[in-house]
Amino acid sequence: RSIASSNSAIIFIHCNIDVGKNVDPIFLLDRMDYVNIANNYLDDSKRKIFCYILDLNEYKYSLIKYISHKLNINFEILNDSLSRESKKSPYEWLYKIINSDYVITDSFHGVAFSILFNKRFLAIGNTSRGLSRFESILNDFNLHDRLITEETDYSQALKKLKQSSNDKEIQEKISILRSTAKCFIKKALVFHK
Q1: Over pLDDT 70: what percentage of the chain?
Q2: Alpha-carbon distance 61 to 8, whole Å?
Q3: Cβ-proximal residues to 13 (8 Å cutoff; 6+ apart), any chain
Q4: CB-based contacts of 89-92 (< 8 A; 24+ apart in sequence)
Q5: CA 116 to CA 28: how far, in whole Å?
Q6: Are 148 and 20 in contact (CB under 8 A)?
Q7: Which candidate, 2, 94, 1, places its Cα nearest to that of 52?
Q8: Which residue spans within 22-148 are E strands per DSSP?
Q9: pLDDT-derived band at 185, boundaries 50, 70, 90
Q10: How far is Cα 22 from Cα 137, in angstroms, rounded to an integer?
C-alpha cells in the first residue's frame, strides 16, 4: 500500500496497516515530458503571473492585483468557475505554468507543477480542499515558507513569492522520489500477477 501525503499515514498507522509514502504521480514524468506536451500550445505572451485559483475570493483577487502592481507584470487567472468557453486545455494550462515568471495558486497540482518547473510561487492554503496535502508536499521539498493563508499580509506574501529555490536540490529530490515510486509500482505489479 502507498499514500502520497504524510498526514494520511497517521490513519493507517492507527489501524496497524503498513504503508509507504510515495510522490504524487505528476513527478513520475520528467519536466521535458511536460514541456513536449505543452508545446502543442503556443502563446506570444510577455512576462506574466499565472494564477491557478480554484476558489477565487476577494482576498486572493486583491493579493494578485497587489503583487501584479508591485512587480509591474500582468497576471492571468484561471479559475474553475469560468464558463466552458473560457476554460483552458491541458496543453494551455501546462504552457501557462511552464512559461510564467511567477505562479500563485490554491491548487495542490498548481503547487506540484510549480515545484517541478522551479517556479517562484505562492501556495495559498486551501482548507476546503485539503491543507495537509499542501503542507506535506511543501515540507517534502523544504518549501514550507511558500505557504500562505488568507491572513497573510500582502507585502509578506510578495516577499515569499520573490524567493528563489535551489533547482538542483529539488530536481535531485524529485529523481530520488521518482525512482522510489517506480520501484514500488514494479514490485506491486509483480506481487499482484
Answers
A1: 81
A2: 31
A3: 19
A4: 89/41, 90/37, 91/37, 91/38, 91/40, 91/41, 92/41, 92/43
A5: 11
A6: no
A7: 94
A8: 48-53, 74-79, 102-105, 120-124, 147-148
A9: confident
A10: 11
